Amino acid sequence: QVQLVESGGGLVQPGGSLRLSCVASGFTFSRYSMRWYRQAPGKKRELVGSLSSTEGTTNYADSVKGRFTISRDNDKNTVYLQMNSLKPEDTAVYYCYANPGYWGQGTQVTVSS
Question: Which of 33, 63, 72, 76 is the most buried (most CB within 10 A)?
C-alpha cells in the first residue's frame, strides 16, 4: 500500500522557519522524483519545488526561490522541505507528491503574528 505522510506543519511567525517531512512507503522511493505543492484557501494548488530522483536537480517556484530548500534521504524514504524567512503568503496546506502518481494528505502551514 502506497503512503506518503507529511509532518512538520504548524503556526509560525513571519520570518520564522519550518521543516516539513514526507515519509514514503509502498513503492521504490529512490526511483521517483519528488515534488512539494501547496494550496492556499480559495486558490489553485501550485508547485513549490521539485527534486529529481538521481541527479539531485532542484527547481523552485519564483515565489520561494532562495527561501525554501528541498532535500531527500533515500535511506529513510523521506523528502524534506526546509522553509526559511516565511511570509504570511506562504500560508497553505503543503503536499508532497511522488512523480508520477502519489499524493500525501497534506500538512497545514500558517504564517501569522
Answer: 72
Burial category of 45 from C-beta neighbours within 10 Å (exposed 0-12, middle 13-18, buried 19 and up): middle
Each of the 113 residues of the chain gets a pLDDT tens digit; together they read 999 999 999 999 999 999 999 999 999 999 999 999 999 999 999 999 999 998 889 999 999 999 999 999 999 999 999 999 999 999 999 999 999 889 999 999 999 99
Please say whether the beta carbons of 103 and 38 come within 8 A: no
Contact between 81 and 94 (Cβ < 8 Å): yes
